User: What shape does this take?
Amino acid sequence: MHHLDPDRLVLLALSEEIEELNESDHLAQCEGCRQEIQDLRHVAELGSQAQELRELPDPPAHVWQAIEAGIAAAPAPVAPVIDMAGRRERRQRSRWLLPAVAAAAAAVLAVAGTVAVDRFTNRAPAEPVTARATLEPLKAAPPNAGGDVRVLDDGRMRVDVRNLPLTTGFHEVWLLDPDEPGKMVAVGSLSDKPDAVLPVPPGTDLNRYRLVDISDEPHDGDATHSGRSLLRGTLTY
Amino acid sequence: MSSDDELAERLRAGDEKALRVAYERHGSAVLYLAQRVVGNRADAEDITQVTFVAAWSGRDGFDPQRGTMLAWLLGIARRKAVDRLRSVARDQRATETVQAQQTAPPAEETPERIVDRLVVADELGRLPEEQRRTLELAFFDDLTHPQIATVTGLPLGTVKSHIRRGMANLRRRWEVDGAPSGSRSAGPSRAL
Assistant: This one.
């Protein structure tokens, strides 16, 4: 049995030409050629619906901001240290270097972790803390920027930041809902002092609004988030 | 323009800029798919966000040998959108809106079918210029091959060969990247 020529199948599938009698006979018997024509027709139909898909509008900017917030809050997939290394050092590096960098980063993190624990244990033992977060720098902040947040059991929040970039506006503290982009609570603004204690609005659900965000706000009279986040960290208990 | 291979490598190395590149290229297709499946803009934007965050967390799972970045992202988005529909249905099983939503996507517009359309549209956009133009005249303007030859000034034999090669390219891409439970495995009733 001779199957139909592939070029011929395309013409038949597009109804560009009509089946000859012997071709109809063959198609009636041959499952393979029938399927071939069906697939081609299906693809042609999908193609003919492509017109409206050519100039799809981009998602609005707040979607990407929400993605960045989600990434900052998401647990790192492979090993956290690789994630951090990637974020801190934006240079391309070849893959064989990664394990070495990761190991070095792990060592640094281990030391940093010890220091952080020391700081927590040595400082302010009198303040009962109900939740805390370590703030990490985002793209708009220098790599050595960072901070710590402690929620005290009286409902206030102690925010300790370091190495924030200078601003012509002010730095504001927010609590974001990482699961629902765009939902956030404004906590207050930071002064020149590195250490600020701000009241968390009463009734705020810190399980939901658990992502602490420090933003750079211009003096533009717009009370909403500028979209320029400098530091972020998730509250843990 | 960096290839999917290069993007995959940069993603695995934890380069957030690679995710941004993927988003700039494919964010609009992901949003379109989500919007078509869940039917409202706010949920669709949310699914777009969740999709790219999941892509970031699961970036080791992207294998350029098995499909393109677009297909991988659409696969994630399709699952997230279908999950969303199900959870809405679960939450409010009794209400009328949900009954409407449960019956909403007609057979013609299954999520798999929308993915297939996006993938074929993407491939059409990547074809060599003359191949693409020829196929567009056939698909969008419904011209016969001799008419296409007249409009473009190309010899009829060249038109036919563009159509043939273009169709082969679209089909290959659909086979590699189309949604897994898509129409190709279904019977003749679904094929047309």
Q: What stands out?
A: Chain B has two domains: 1-105, 106-192. Residues 75 and 144 of chain B are 35 Å apart (CA to CA). The first helix of chain B runs from residue 4 to 12. The two ends of chain B are 36 Å apart (CA to CA).
